[in-house]
Write a structure and sequence with these properties.
10 helices, 68% helix, two-stranded antiparallel sheet
């Protein structure tokens, strides 16, 4: 586990665990979004001073990008695992049920960190929105390629638009994250998944 020593402000330098501090910052950004998370929120949750934050992570924007990297690596692993499922419908089911598991989990902020930060983003934080959009586009391209493969294998009908199907899946997934953030129960979200899968164009 990586640790660092912050430059001294008064007295001795303070040592802290960078990984633990970053994990705490992730939860603040996830719960409040980029604009909603103040420096005081972040430093109090991370247990460090502002100079220590700047020394270890750069500014607030740089910290958010690092937190988003961690969020994708730990919380969104299901999106990568979904691509390895044997059928297009299994891909979709893994995506949607994984979304429910992550975005409506007990003890975690509800909703999507990236979506919330990109929707409620001030003009001064356009780079945050651009980064979220770039990451989402990369994930969507991988899904399109997976559905094109399914068409070649006969798992999806040849007339199906892989990009349109990907947009449909993402719309449902974003709906799950928004509804989770608005207080929908797990049972309600699971029912949304079941209904969506009933409309899927393959078995």
């Amino acid at each position: 586990m990586e640790s660092t020593i912050a430059p001294p402000v008064k007295g001795r330098p303070r040592e802290f665990c960078v990984d633990k501090a970053l994990a705490e910052a992730l939860h603040v950004f996830w719960a409040k979004g980029y604009d909603g998370a103040s420096m005081t929120d972040l430093t109090e949750a991370m247990g460090i001073t502002k100079p220590s934050l700047y020394a270890a992570f750069g500014n607030k924007e740089a910290l958010f990008h690092k937190a988003l990297d961690l969020y994708e690596a730990e919380k969104l692993e299901y999106t990568r695992a979904a691509l390895r499922q044997p059928t297009a419908r299994k891909v979709a089911e893994y995506y949607l049920r994984g979304g429910v598991d992550v975005h409506a989990a007990d003890g975690e902020p509800h909703g999507c960190m990236g979506l919330m930060s990109s929707l409620a983003c001030s003009p001064e934080a356009e780079s945050i929105k651009a980064d979220v959009i770039r990451r989402r586009a990369s994930s969507q391209r991988a899904l399109v390629e997976r559905f094109e493969q399914a068409k070649r294998e006969g798992d999806l009908p040849a007339h199906i638009d892989a990009e349109g199907l990907t947009s449909f899946l993402y719309a449902i997934l974003q709906g799950i994250t928004v509804q989770a953030g608005a207080g929908a129960t797990r049972a309600e979200l699971e029912r949304l998944v079941d209904t969506s899968l009933a409309l899927w164009p393959s078995k």
